[in-house]
Amino acid sequence: MENLTYNFSKLQIEKPNLEYAKVLSNIYSGEDSIQTLFHLYFYQSLIAKDQFDEYYLVLEKVLLVEYNHFKLIGELIKLLGLKPTFNAIINNCFIAWNVSNVDYTCELEKMIKKDIFTLKLIIQDYYEAIILIRDKYIRPILYQIIKIEEKNLKMFENFYKKRYN
Fold first, then answer.
1. Fewer CB within 10 A of the terminal residue: the chain, N end or C end?
2. Range 17-164 classified under CATH 1.20.1260.10
């Protein structure tokens, strides 16, 4: 599984930009965000352990990937001029991330479907961020994250097909 690691001391941006930071804040901690995905995978890994061993191993790997994405986007938000809080920013209002964003189902089929659905939403958010963010250093990072997330999506879809089709 491909992972995205960076030397955070070498991360750079063209210049601070609060609008770009707000866009990334929504990906970071919005309703359907990296934070939601991370907590969803974490919860599911606790449920899957000893019950769905193969899926548990998949979740453990993608958890590390999402952790790195979470940290990377947080560092970019900071460089752009905002604190990387656990809030989305919509119409200049801070909307706190909430644990109710996580689906707490314990059924494997529903968990996989939720993972696929949420990952598709986040990938779409990354594409929308690329349209809005014109920074020559940030855009390649977002494209690289999308590439990794699309591989993860394919892995989840294949796992579902193998198990339920």
1. C
2. yes
